[in-house]
Amino acid sequence: MRSPVPDYLHQILDECGGDNSGETADYIPELAAADPEVLGICISTVDGVRYEAGDAETEVSIQSISKPFAYALAIAQHGLEHVLDRVGVEPSGEAFNELSLERDSGRPLNPMINAGALTTHALIGDTGASADERFELVRQGMSAFAGRELQVDEKVYDSELRTAYRNEAIANMLRSYDVIGQEPHDVVAGYTRQCSLLVTARDLAAMAATFANGGVQPITGERVIERDVVRQVLSVMMTCGMYDAAGDWMSTIGFPAKSGVSGGILGVLPGQVGIATVSPRLDAHGNSVRGVRLCSRMSRDMGMHIMEAPEPARAVVRRDRTLRGPSGQLVRVVSLQGAIQFSGAERVLRALEGSLGDVDRLVLDLRRVASLNNVAERMLAEAVRRAQHDGIDVTVLDPEKRLPDPDEGQPVPEYSDDLSDFADHERV
Ligand code: GLU
């Protein structure tokens, strides 16, 4: 069987590709000259399978899509607190290149606007690092996300730096308020090189999938960034990632994303996929017209809005039976199933609460449980502890040893789901 996923991507590319509205970015001469017809899409699963259609291997400069990665590298180097002291996390609602600082704190509002991105770029490397050393750290860090060595488009770099009057102004503002300590021009040059790194939709999908995968690059298997840093970065992408259309994007499309003026959009569906589109013509907010259409289409067709309330999880209590043994002892056998998180564990606790009074033995069968998250694990372990405290003999059937074993050292008893092990017991 051929997977229908690539066919679906070709289909939506055909459907959205006809929209020729929008303009390529014109404030960077080299981008104004980009081929406006380029159109590529790629999605990467968290286990590293990439599906693509169109110009998924055409290189474009990464531009602002580099910002979440530089932010991640700055947090990884200094810790969140240090970075938060210097760059805020509030959506600005202003243009990405506004000369602005947060009123009380004097910090740039967030790392997705240029003031914040210049500051995060300046944070990378030792205080005494040269501009080249700093850039090299950024390049290596971003290459680890992509799973290949990224290189600079020198033409785009020269073209942008020659006309970077606004970014020079922002960097001078940052220097004058002591937000950055380096020479403003060096920071602008390094940041501009960061924005000029060449990527394809394939690269962007892999970079997005690294975030979706909690920081582990799905193809190389390398842990590129810690999980808690990923959470921070995705939260800021969610609220500030799509220029001044972030609220509109969130409500209609609904997954964290970052766009860039060269026409790329990178989206992340945590735990599931990384998404990338490339198409250079931009709308009035600076987001790729066809990229937004493609993402909106995928979000709708594939239920990707992260605020969509999931269907109530399948009952986690698969069976709950009470048996009476030959000598009158009562055995409660509770079999669980599926992926158990807080709400599932709460249902189990609710089923047990107040109903174990006469029970002599509790058998908690976890053999069909697909996954237990950390909170569910702790809640069930606590239920076991409390039942034991009430004098109940507890057996957990948990061959994968996800709960601390209450009968440590005891082999998991033989037990079959048809209760043949309790053949001499009666259903109560
Ligand atoms: N290098 C560009 C700038 O700083 C990036 C802008 C963007 O992609 O939003 O102006």
Shape: elongated
Structural class label = alpha+beta
How is the largest sheet built, in terms of strand order?
2-1-7-6-5
CATH architectural label of the largest domain: 3-Layer(aba) Sandwich
Please give the count of helices. 15
Give, in order, the helices and strands.
HHEEEHHHHHHHEHHHEEEHEEHEHEE
- CATH class label of the largest domain: Alpha Beta
Mean pLDDT figure = 92
Major β-sheet profile:
5 strands, antiparallel
Query: Which fold name fills CATH's third level, the topology of the largest domain?
Result: Beta-lactamase
Low-confidence stretches: none
Keywords: Acetylation, Hydrolase
Subunit structure: Homotetramer.
GO biological process, one term: glutamate biosynthetic process
Catalytic activity: L-glutamine + H2O = L-glutamate + NH4(+)
Protein topology:
Elements: H1 4-17, H2 29-32, E1 40-45, E2 50-54, E3 60-61, H3 67-78, H4 80-86, H5 114-123, H6 131-146, H7 154-162, H8 165-176, H9 184-195, E4 198-199, H10 201-212, H11 227-240, H12 246-252, E5 257-259, E6 264-269, E7 273-278, H13 289-302, E8 317-324, E9 330-340, H14 342-352, E10 361-372, H15 374-389, E11 393-397, E12 426-427
Parallel strand pairs: 9-10, 10-11
Antiparallel strand pairs: 1-2, 1-7, 3-4, 5-6, 6-7, 8-9, 8-12
Helix pairs in contact: 1-13, 3-4, 3-5, 3-11, 5-8, 5-9, 6-9, 6-10, 7-9, 8-9, 14-15
The chain binds glutamic acid.
Glutamic acid (GLU) binds near residues 97 and 167.
